[in-house]
Design a protein that fits this description.
Layout: H1 2-6, H2 9-14, H3 16-49, H4 53-102, H5 105-110, H6 113-155, H7 157-164, H8 167-204, H9 206-211, H10 215-267, H11 273-315, E1 336-345, E2 348-358, E3 363-367, H12 374-379, E4 389-394, E5 397-398, H13 404-408, E6 411-414, H14 425-429, H15 438-447, H16 451-456, H17 474-487, E7 492-496, H18 504-517, E8 522-526, H19 530-533, E9 538-543, E10 546-551, H20 553-559, H21 562-578
Parallel strand pairs: 3-8, 3-9, 6-7, 7-8
Antiparallel strand pairs: 1-2, 1-4, 4-5, 9-10
Helix pairs in contact: 3-4, 3-6, 3-11, 4-6, 6-7, 6-8, 6-11, 7-10, 8-10, 8-11, 10-11, 15-17, 20-21
The structure holds adenosine-5'-diphosphate and magnesium ion.
Length: 579
């Protein structure tokens, strides 16, 4: 339990002043509660010898006063400590999100979104329960025990021993059940992650599910997951269900022992009737902490298990991080050099010892079969990943010596798969450039060949784009992504098959428009259309992650390799279409 707290001590430390105040209220509340039985004893012993209404009222007044004090501090204890647990939850959630934003793309390739969502919601809540109610009741219970036992021992140590007799058994039960609860809860949270992932994937892939008539299959699968989740929960309830009655039974037995032994003590006048009643009152007071103990152990174990799951996220380090002393980028010319760059995925090599220099201001086209490593090659430039061997340089500086954010500011990247946010089109184009004016957004849209499409929408630039851009056609989405890249006014523009969803004519028109805007900038263009790439200063052909041909359109056509083949095929197609 304390190990799990260690990892959140920064947060606890941050709120130390408030926590101290809350714990102060807790102590006062517990002390007021512990004094009550003493007053009861004094009342019984005094009144049974000499009864008087004034005395009775005085004792009654005392008790009411104590109850009021106790209630007041209990209120503050809860407000302060639960409030702090919410503050910590807030901090933790912010830190978690910040961390998630910083993690590199490869992390999201490994981990399911639903799993992350489950940790960020369900587990975070369990941690808050541990830090708020968990810590509060844990301290409260321990202190109540301590006070009651100290007072009982001073009155009659034999009776006190009887009263605490179940303590070792309680500890054993707490340890045993605590472990079991922890293990089961861990499994439950893992299953909840599975369920969340399933839901998330089904929502994201809703069109696929419909198109392949998988609704029933998905339902069945989900039902199965859901059922085992419930079964696992019932297993947890079964064990925590045994735990509480067990504690209560132990308490009951103690009551019995105290009644029997204490009753005898009273009859033989070893202790006063008042002391006996006091003992019984303490026992009564201790019932709640005993029961609470079971609940608190539950909370702490769940919180611990959840914290471990959250810590697993925190322990992930971004594989692509800023160096300690990044080289400042002052004036970027835009020369890119791949120097013996290789990229190996677990599944195999995607780039194999590629050496290639792209001069500042040049337009270089990359062609090749699907899977030949084109996307991998261009992904190295904004450091979506790093080469596993060799290096990539910008103006002669190794990219790993630059701050990634600084580097990316100079790159307009249009990935093969576009992603649009559920915002307006204008908002999507201006993504990342908060200062963009309306005129700038319009110009970018015009250059990307998107303006006339947008103007045909009833709401124009204020049209809401559904999540992932579902309300736009594939070509419109791609052009939105291009407009977004241009708006940044980058030194380097990378188009990864960015016009695959528009027809050849539109593509040519857009590229012509872009040519003016991109003059003097470095452009890397991936496409499978010869008509698109023929204008490039240089064409590079990739095959199995290696550069197999490079040169101008004319060079490559006369070389008679892959590119010449491609060119001939597409020329034939064009001629056939023209007929
Ligand atoms: P292209 O863009 O030319 O179609 P890619 O660069 O996308 O090719 O892929 C090159 C090879 O690397 C392919 O065999 C592909 O399966 C593999 N690959 C690409 N991305 C990943 C990834 N994130 N994890 C593992 N393998 C990958
Ligand atoms: Mg690709």
């Amino acid at each position: 339990m304390w190990e799990s707290l260690r990892t959140v001590r920064v947060y606890l430390w941050r709120y130390r002043a408030g926590l101290a105040l809350g714990l102060g209220a807790l102590v006062l509340k517990d002390v007021a509660g512990a004094v009550q039985p003493l007053v009861i004893r004094a009342a019984i012993d005094t009144l049974s010898h000499a009864f008087g209404l004034a005395r009775l009222l005085r004792f009654a007044g005392f008790l009411v006063g104590l109850a009021a004090i106790k209630g007041l501090f209990q209120y503050w204890m809860r407000v302060i400590i639960i409030g702090i647990s919410r503050d910590i939850e807030y901090d933790l959630r912010n830190d978690l999100f910040r961390h998630l934003v910083e993690l590199s793309p490869d992390y999201y390739g490994r981990v399911r979104t639903g799993d992350i969502m489950a940790r960020a919601t369900n587990d975070l809540n369990a941690v808050r329960m541990m830090l708020g109610p968990g810590i509060m009741y844990w301290t409260e219970t321990s202190l109540t025990f301590l006070l009651a036992i100290v007072i009982m021992v001073t009155v009659d140590w034999r009776l006190a021993v009887l009263a605490v007799l179940p303590a070792p058994l309680v500890s054993l039960a707490v340890i045993f059940f605590g472990r079991a609860i922890h293990a089961r809860f861990e499994r439950i949270q893992a299953m909840f992650s599975d369920i969340s992932s399933r839901v998330q994937e089904n929502l994201a892939g809703v069109r696929m599910v419909r198109a392949f008539v998988q609704e029933q299959a998905e339902l069945r699968h989900f039902e199965k997951l859901n059922r085992s989740y419930i079964a696992e929960n019932i297993r947890l309830v079964r064990i925590s269900g045994v735990f509480q009655p067990l504690l209560e039974a132990l308490i009951g037995l103690t009551f019995l022992a105290v009644l029997w032994y204490g009753g005898g003590q009273v009859l033989t006048h070893r202790i006063s009737l008042g002391s006996f009643v006091m003992f019984n009152t303490y026992m009564g007071i201790l019932v709640w902490p005993m029961i609470a103990l079971g609940w608190v152990v539950n909370l702490m174990q769940r919180g611990g298990a959840s914290l471990e799951r959250i810590n697993q996220i925190f322990q992930e380090k971004p594989t692509i991080a800023a160096p300690l002393h990044p080289v400042p980028l002052i004036r970027v010319r835009g020369e890119i050099e791949f120097r013996n760059a290789s990229v190996a995925y677990p599944s195999g090599r995607a780039l194999d010892d590629v050496s290639l220099t792209i001069e500042a201001g040049a337009t270089v086209a990359v062609v090749g079969h699907t899977g030949s490593g084109k996307s991998t090659l261009v992904g190295l430039v904004p450091r979506l990943m790093d080469p596993t061997a060799g290096c990539v340089l910008l103006d002669g500086i190794d990219l790993r010596d630059l701050a990634p954010a600084e580097l990316r500011r100079h790159i307009g990247f249009v990935p093969q798969e576009t992603f649009l946010f559920s915002a307006t089109i204008a908002g999507n184009v201006a993504f990342g450039v908060e200062s963009a004016t309306e005129a700038e957004i319009r110009r970018a849209a015009e250059l990307a060949g998107l303006a006339s499409d947008i103007e045909s929408f009833p709401k124009g630039y204020e049209t809401m784009v559904g999540e992932r851009g579902i309300t736009l056609s594939g070509g419109q989405k791609q052009r939105t992504a291009i407009a977004r890249a241009i708006l940044r006014n980058p030194r380097i523009l990378i188009l990864d098959d960015a016009l695959s969803s528009v027809d050849t004519l539109t593509e040519e028109r857009i590229l012509e428009g872009l040519a003016g805007a991109m003059r003097g900038r470095t452009v890397i263009l991936i496409s499978h259309r010869v008509s698109t790439v023929r204008q490039a200063d240089r064409i590079v052909v990739l095959e199995h992650g290696r550069v197999v041909e490079q040169g101008t359109h004319a060079d490559l056509v006369s070389a008679g390799g892959y590119y010449a083949d491609l060119s001939q095929k597409q020329m034939l197609e064009e001629e056939l279409e023209a007929i």
